[in-house]
Structure to design on (208 residues):
């Protein structure tokens, strides 16, 4: 009978671990961008790989449990969609951090603005994920999802403004390519936050 018993707590536990790790990653990224000492900045950015690897393992466990359990607390496609979306947030954040180190980019103004948006976005994702366990405060979850959407729009606007400023500057072609790559990855990270928000909204519509 264990095979047919929904393991509610297990899936929620795993989602919450990933979401909490995203908040930690956001905080470290923000601290790294604000760090004036180059070698300390590099250490902070590279430390994100450890947490990203942890999230990889937790996400893998979500998919393993999805295969092992015949009956799940949520629709299987919703569990898969949310797990994938959360994983991509950490993947993009680590990817952007690695590029900042490898490209040796120091556009503090734009990166600082992105770090603020990202920290706020992952905090709202965390709030929404933790609300799923009992779904008692739907307004709280919905407010977090709306805020994620607003922040994604802010990131779009920031990217557009950064591109206009960059192409109007005297910065060389190689530097433009490097910065655009990083800024685009950070903007897409907020898209992934919105994907997670959409997955959560789909779940609460189905189960309330």
């Amino acid at each position: 009978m264990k095979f047919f018993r929904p393991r509610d707590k297990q899936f929620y536990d795993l989602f919450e671990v990933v979401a909490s790790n995203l908040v930690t990653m956001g905080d470290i990224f923000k601290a790294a961008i604000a760090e004036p000492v180059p070698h300390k900045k590099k250490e902070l950015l590279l430390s994100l790989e450890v947490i990203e690897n942890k999230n990889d393992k937790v996400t893998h466990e979500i998919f393993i449990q999805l295969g092992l359990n015949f009956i799940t607390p949520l629709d299987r496609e919703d569990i898969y969609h949310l797990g994938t979306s959360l994983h991509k947030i950490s993947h993009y954040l680590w990817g952007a951090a690695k590029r900042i180190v490898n490209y040796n980019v120091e556009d503090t103004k734009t990166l600082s603005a992105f770090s603020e948006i990202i920290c706020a976005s992952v905090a709202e994702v965390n709030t929404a994920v933790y609300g799923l366990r009992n779904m008692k405060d739907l307004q709280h979850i919905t407010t977090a999802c709306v805020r994620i959407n607003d922040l994604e729009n802010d990131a779009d606007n920031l990217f557009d403004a950064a591109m206009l400023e960059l192409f109007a500057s005297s910065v060389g072609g190689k530097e433009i390519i490097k910065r655009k790559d990083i800024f685009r990855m950070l903007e897409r990270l907020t898209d992934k936050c919105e994907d997670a928000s959409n997955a959560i909204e789909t779940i609460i519509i189905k189960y309330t």
